[in-house]
Amino acid sequence: MNCDFTFKHYNAILTIAKNVGYRFGNFKESRQGPVLILRHDVDFSPRNALRFGTLEAEKGVRSTYFFLLRTPFYNLLEYNVVSVLRQLRKLGHEIGLHFDQQAVRVVDRRVLEAEVLYELSVVSRILGEEVKVVSFHNPLNNVFCWNAASFTNAYAASFFLKEMKYLSDSNHQWREGCLCRLLKERKYDRIQVLIHPELWDTRPGNVVERLTKAVNDSRLACQGYLEERNDVFKKRK
């Protein structure tokens, strides 16, 4: 088996997890093992998030997708992005807020909690239902093992290193070897796995290639918007 970052291999990972007896949970339910919580932080590509969500639904798997409110790569109010959120919900997945702590430059937890609650209210209004679960983008140390009173923190102690194994595909580095092998061995009974949709594709590729594609896709989306809305730009050639 090729341990690459392709949709084909992700499909194989899901198959292995099901075959060895993992239950796919979320951040709301009981976390009695063997349980696997799949988390997707959507840093750049809502389109790839939907590809993952569709693949998972076809295998009877559900996960949680966290979207940024502050990012130059996509607009959470834009029609196509709202459509992605709603399609993911119809597929049975949960939606959460991916909060960029460094964008607001807040360290104090009381102030931070207020900022998070504000963004949660915005995402909830966009989706048309209450959103209560949060993951932190490029997190600072003060959010690790923080059991926030007013929202569910994906880095809370019950989901993180103290009570649950945490694994991530960040920069294509699993750190303990490919996830498929760890699952096959049933090395851990309770696991939270972070998957970044933009780091995976139909063909093998490295991190720089994946991120360059995300940049190009964003540029093309902006170009398409101008061509549709601005006659001068449309006639530029």
Distance between the termini: 48 Å
CATH architecture: Alpha-Beta Barrel
Q: Output the radius of gyration.
A: 18 Å
CATH level-four homologous superfamily name: Glycoside hydrolase/deacetylase
Spell out the helices and strands N to C.
Answer: HEEHEHEHHEEEHEHH
Shape: globular
Number of domains: 1
Unreliable parts? none
Q: Summarize model confidence as the mean pLDDT.
A: 93
Strand content: 15-25%
Class inferred from helices and paired strands = alpha/beta
Report the count of strand segments.
8
Task: Considering the chains and any ligands shown, give keywords for the structure.
237 residues, alpha/beta, TIM Barrel, eight-stranded parallel sheet, 8 helices, globular
What this model shows, in words?
With 237 residues, the protein is an alpha/beta fold. The chain has a single domain, classed as Alpha-Beta Barrel (TIM Barrel). It has 8 helices and 8 strands. Strands 1, 2, 3, 4, 5, 6, 7 and 8 form an 8-stranded parallel sheet that branches. Strand 2 (35-42), helix 2 and strand 3 (64-68) form a beta-alpha-beta unit. Helix 2 (46-58) runs parallel beside helix 3. The longest helix is centred in the last third of the chain and has 23 residues, at 207-229. The protein is globular, with a radius of gyration of 18 Å. The relative contact order is 0.17.
